[in-house]
Amino acid sequence: MSSVKYVIGVDGGGTKTEAVAFDGDGEEWSRGVSGFGNLVVDPEQAAQNIEEAIDRCREPLKGLDCAYIYLGLAGIEGTPHRADLEQRLKERFRTRISLANDAMIAHAASLEGKDGILTISGTGSISWGVCRGRVAFTGGWGHLLGDEGSGYWIAIEAFRQMIREEEESRTRGPLSRALLRRLDIDRVHDIKTLIYESSKAEIAAVVPIVAEEADGGDPFSRSLLERAGRELAEQTVRLHRKLDFQRRVAIGLKGGVLLSVSPVREAFVQWVKESIPQADFVEQDVPSTKGAYFLAIQELQKHG
Amino acid sequence: MSSVKYVIGVDGGGTKTEAVAFDGDGEEWSRGVSGFGNLVVDPEQAAQNIEEAIDRCREPLKGLDCAYIYLGLAGIEGTPHRADLEQRLKERFRTRISLANDAMIAHAASLEGKDGILTISGTGSISWGVCRGRVAFTGGWGHLLGDEGSGYWIAIEAFRQMIREEEESRTRGPLSRALLRRLDIDRVHDIKTLIYESSKAEIAAVVPIVAEEADGGDPFSRSLLERAGRELAEQTVRLHRKLDFQRRVAIGLKGGVLLSVSPVREAFVQWVKESIPQADFVEQDVPSTKGAYFLAIQELQKHG
């Protein structure tokens, strides 16, 4: 790649889309931000937001040559709009374009484009693996089919415990008391309205309350977070079995639940080590656009 | 109640609202049907539909005196519109009005207004109990907080088994093969799109496939249906513990899953008997509007 060329990495999520231009050494040259880039939310508006982020990123770089645009978009799988979007972006920007899942570019960011597994637990959860060109995943089935170990899952399990206490006329535990107090709810029955009228992210936002109660010594909160870590570890090990890794394997951690909630992270690391003693854990939190950059460079090197 | 008086029972659900007028002996005099009566779907449209069903039911009874309108409405709990609706119906129909949950009138229909527990498993599940004026329930928390033993729950568990087989690179079991064939899906990944774009009722509609595979000898399908029956039994027993029943207790069964899927019903009866040997099972499928009639008559007798 000559010095006047650059590549753009795009990270399109449920609330915003970021496009970042990098030179051949991975230095950031410019950046554009716009609204959501998740095709499931609204495919036409997402496509417009993605174009807008790229336009804003390219504006300061007029006259220079964009060699590649690599996009990682939430909800790209299972939409019938993928091929249309690719065609539309190719015509609009007249350069080489690749579309991938948002987990794919997060993986490349964390593991610097190398082989290994990235396990993410934020509102949802997924394990994404790349091994000598083969790509596979476990989890990522969403809240209805079970994203065990995710923030949403932890929150729902906390509310289910509250329901069990209510139905079995047991004394309310410290976590239930903390949740009712912090959410300003009197009756357990009112959590039903709360859950069905809130977004998944809003529900997952109670995880810090669980973490506080665990820190404060509540055994149920602690064991719930450890269960989350173990679920994420098992998901990671299932993926490790599917892909034919060499002796050592890099395992990246990402997402607020896995990185910031210590009992989850500690249980995760312990249970992964049990099954994969050769694991090297990577906890660096690199923006996903940088992962798109690594993947763009790989494509340019592969295909010239 | 004099012979020129009648009462109306209303059953408002997610797709239709039925209003039936009964004379003092419980004989049906007339009937009106309209669209959904679930306040959660759209409170104003639901209110209009409810009024329309009652209007249609009253049309052939002009000149006669309506002594009571008893309504059982899905989603009446947790909506802020209950008081408004009651006021609106009182002004419009100028008679005594009671609003209750749809499970309450289903209970009264099955147990002829007497004490006992009704356990319902259709798309969702709930156990509703009445004991000497006290009303309580277990379950009914909906698909996100867990309506174990419901048709939706059985379907999701079937799809989760398919996911486990896929993630663990196991051979597909008979149920997974049947589901993929009958839903015309090639890749397990496509069930994600299917689940997130379908209604709960559409998802629960795969239960007959599970029942067929269980009949055909598939151990997983059979044990899944038995687990559903056991979950419903445990929910029923939790409610029995909450309410202070006398020696014998009537336990009604309702809903397609509990009444029509034999392994579910058999496991349910067996597990309930284990904890409540004095249970009398009631399997008659009486329309819920008749339950509203029983409750209206009780109100008239109580308050004159």
TrEMBL record, chains A, B:
> What residue stretches are annotated with the ATPase BadF/BadG/BcrA/BcrD type domain?
8-287
Q: What Pfam families does the record point to?
A: BcrAD_BadFG
Specify the domain of life of the species encoding this protein.
Bacteria
Q: Which CDD domains match?
A: ASKHA_NBD_eukNAGK-like
InterPro entries on file: ATPase_BadF, ATPase_NBD, Euk-type_GlcNAc_Kinase
The UniProt entry, under PANTHER family, shows: N-ACETYL-D-GLUCOSAMINE KINASE
Protein name stated in the entry: ATPase BadF/BadG/BcrA/BcrD type domain-containing protein
| Provenance organism | Paludifilum halophilum
Q: What is the lineage of its organism?
A: Bacteria, Bacillati, Bacillota, Bacilli, Bacillales
